[in-house]
Amino acid sequence: MAEYAEIIKDLQKGKYAPVYFLQGDEPFFIDNITENIEHNALDDTQKSFNQYVLYGKDVTFTDVLNVARKYPMMGERQVVIVKEAQDMRDWKKEDPQKMLIAYLENPLPTTILVFGHKYKTLDRRTKISKALEKNAVFLNSKRIYDDKVPGWVRSYAQATGANVTEKAIMILTENIGNNLQRLANEINKLKLNVEDGQQIDEVAVQKYVGISKDYNTFELQKAISLRDEVKVMKIVQYFDANPSSNPLIMVIANLYSYFTKLLLIHHQGASDKNAVARAIGVNPFFATEYMQAARNYPAHIVIRNIQLIHQADLQSKGIGYAPMKDGNILKELIFKLMH
């Protein structure tokens, strides 16, 4: 089973395999590899007659293999991409599976065949899955855990040549979450809108992404951690006035993640900045703030607050509670968290 970074590295070197099978819950890695092949494996003069983009709901294995077995026209290779391959009905049919397995065992070397099988995975015990793992470049694209997202953003920014500050990274990840495609799009947009080599900070994020540098979930968490009630209420009022930019479900999810990190600090008893950073998966730059928050919120209060956040989540979904406006749910939750 291949890793995303390894596949991209080979593609950048112009090294292509006969078959790629890209599956899993995280569409960004699948789409990124597919687009790399689609855009770069052939030059523009070849694409019109040597590149085929098919869609799973419209084709069978027979259709795909008939195209894959063709020889390229006036070129050294052809590209056959099956997007939304998870919609193909043949994955559970024995005879079509046998045909695909036979091709995998002896693929046409002049064809690059790509299956983009998003949001689902094949049962690894099946013959077709085993054959793909053995004979294709096989990627299992997993979603990144929330605590790993800032590191991913940092790496992506560095790979694209964008110089993004740690605070800007935290604001982006706290407000966008683990939507890698949107994070990548925003990094690309920021890079286009600043001068080469210019640092991308929270001011740039506010200007070009639309996330306020003063009123965002990162600043809310910081104000809660310091028990700065005046600033907390200003941010909550801003959220209430701008619900589309600060949806309650996202704020609740971030607060849950934040207090879960505080509970982990209490559980591990870490007192050194670097140890805290490693324990909760943040940059050491922000560890001091978390340590201050842990002092302001003892373990039993953190546990209570996690329960309050869970209750607010249920209330926002109308489960077991009387209907209430999102802004009022948030105001009530924040008051309870801090008292």
Automatic annotation (TrEMBL):
Gene3D superfamilies named in the record: 1.10.8.60, 1.20.272.10, P-loop containing nucleotide triphosphate hydrolases (3.40.50.300)
Domain of life where this protein originates: Bacteria
The enzyme's E.C. designation: 2.7.7.7
InterPro entries: DNA_pol3_clamp-load_cplx_C, DNA_pol3_delta_N, DNA_polIII_delta, P-loop_NTPase
GO CC terms: DNA polymerase III complex
GO molecular function: DNA binding; DNA-directed DNA polymerase activity
Annotated DNA polymerase III delta N-terminal domain residues: 20-140
Catalytic activity: DNA(n) + a 2'-deoxyribonucleoside 5'-triphosphate = DNA(n+1) + diphosphate
One Pfam family, short name: DNA_pol3_delta
Any coiled-coil regions, as ranges: 173-200
Any one biological process term the GO annotation gives: DNA-templated DNA replication
Keywords: Coiled coil, DNA replication, DNA-directed DNA polymerase, Nucleotidyltransferase, Transferase
UniProt family annotation: Belongs to the DNA polymerase HolA subunit family.
Protein name: DNA polymerase III subunit delta
Originating organism: Marinoscillum furvescens DSM 4134
